[in-house]
């Protein structure tokens, strides 16, 4: 049996109506009967109220005929499809029936085989209609999210923006929340997680959400939610953490009108990045002062080079941790990015493959590490592990075979949008934590980073060699949101997918 849909029947002949009800009860169909009506007026009222997927209507009924009902269904934009029930050939009405989107017709007396045949065809038609509707709704939601992202980013927008984002016209003032979500390894859709949590807390239509980066989600709250933003922040943080099992840091901004939101978003994003230095699961105000830190040279290459020559992992770890301690005294995202980037370059040179690392996007790796870490201590531990993996490259780990299996599984399954750490773990017969630990130790990158890299490299090949459209490529490499895919692609390669002919 397939997806179940709803059905209404209407006929002014009692025995015909009863036979239809009896056949539907006896035969195995994918339709649930909602109502049976004896005239066209009642049928139309029920269709408006219940909006069944399908209506079987007698072509001749008191008050309203089946064709007249079909006409009203079309003119009012109702989703119900129609099958006409008649005792004569519909040739004379065929043109009208087609214009009113009538699916088919049944001849009286009704035979069970004929009924099942038209219901099977109707089911297939309705299923295709629902699938197309879901695609359009999904695209509209993605388009709205992209418009909000562009708006908060300060990009020029079309004059009808407030028609696309009606909330921006519905309230005089707004609050802005920014959340950074991190999980054990991968969140397929952080925005969906936040939206689901807000749906359980706030009235429908009182907020908008958009992804601002790999793990950062912006929420614009209407007037209704502005009155208790601190309480809401705590509620939302708890709800998100419960759903992901990971951490969630949150930044809230003061109230502002719609035109002031982009500036608030820039301020909040700066604060959100700095929460790495506060610890995990913090709640901070966007205007919290950030101490100014001057650029600092860690001289990491000079510090670590002797230990690479001596293969002294313990001494190298101590030197790296001392750099992180210094970083805490010169706390800035710029200094943190510099330290991580230098570590990547040093380890890449030591491994004898700098070109491969650069090809995979050095800056993007740095960005992913920052976005998928909850606090500075997590980044420090990851970097130490990464360093040790390059110092211990002379020894063969017993988990080397498992890492190869993980790579092969990702390479063969990256097009699956549901591909994530739990799926990989279940497929290979290990716990997610074990898979994550082994892969990071053996490869120096996380599972999510490797999935992203495989998708990006595949996307570039499909765009530049096969000349496929961005939307088609998006689906082929495992993304469901074309706007999110485009942003990930640009972050990785430095240019938009539409310009992928670039070297």
Spatial strand sequence of the major β-sheet: 2-1-3-4-5
Domains (count)? 4
**End-to-end distance:** 51 Å
The percent range for helix content is: 55-70%
CATH topology grouping of the largest domain = Rossmann fold
Structural class: alpha/beta
State the low-pLDDT regions, or none. Answer: 394-398
Mean pLDDT across the residues is: 83
From the coordinates shown, what is the CATH architecture of the largest domain?
3-Layer(aba) Sandwich
**In what range is the share of β-strand residues?**
5-15%
User: What is the count of DSSP helices, taking H or I runs of 4+ residues?
Assistant: 23
How would you describe this structure to a colleague?
This protein is of the alpha/beta class. The protein has four domains: 5-131, Response regulator (Rossmann fold, 3-Layer(aba) Sandwich); 167-285, Alpha-Beta Plaits (2-Layer Sandwich); 291-395; 397-503, Arc Repressor Mutant, subunit A. It has 23 helices and ten strands. The strands form two sheets. The chain has a five-stranded parallel sheet, with helices on both faces. Strands 7-8-6-9-10 form a five-stranded mixed sheet, with helices on both faces. Residues 394-398 have low confidence and may be disordered.
Q: SSE layout and pairings?
A:
Layout lengths: L4 E6 L3 H13 L4 E7 L2 H11 L3 E5 L7 H10 L5 E6 L7 H6 L2 E6 L4 H42 L7 H4 L2 H4 L3 E9 L7 H10 L7 E5 L4 E6 L1 H4 L2 H16 L2 E10 L4 H14 L8 E3 L14 H11 L2 H17 L3 H19 L2 H6 L2 H10 L4 H16 L8 H14 L7 H8 L3 H12 L3 H18 L5 H7 L5 H12 L10
Parallel strand pairs: 1-2, 1-3, 3-4, 4-5, 9-10
Antiparallel strand pairs: 6-8, 6-9, 7-8
Helix pairs in contact: 2-3, 8-10, 12-13, 12-14, 13-17, 14-16, 14-17, 17-20, 18-20, 19-20
